[in-house]
Amino acid sequence: MLSRSVTKEEESVCEANNITIADMPTRSCKDMREAQLKDDNFKKIIDSFEFPLKTEEYANWTERGFLMNQGILYRYVPDADLFRRSSVSHSNC
Question: Which domain of life does this protein belong to (predicted)?
Fold first, then answer.
């Protein structure tokens, strides 16, 4: 028994598509961290994440969707039923 339905030959269509891959500009983690630390608001959040004792301020930031991974501050932003992770910058905080 076949795992798919049988089709007539004239109904089958095959196409080949070309895909172009563009070089996207990238920023190193070091550059992103330095840029975040220059902003006083981001620095306050980063300091609360890096402080050894997790305070109420830390809990407030995590409730708002902020997290830190490898020294970079991120924020989970609800997008319909999905969540996406984005690094924090002036435009999306």
Answer: Eukaryota
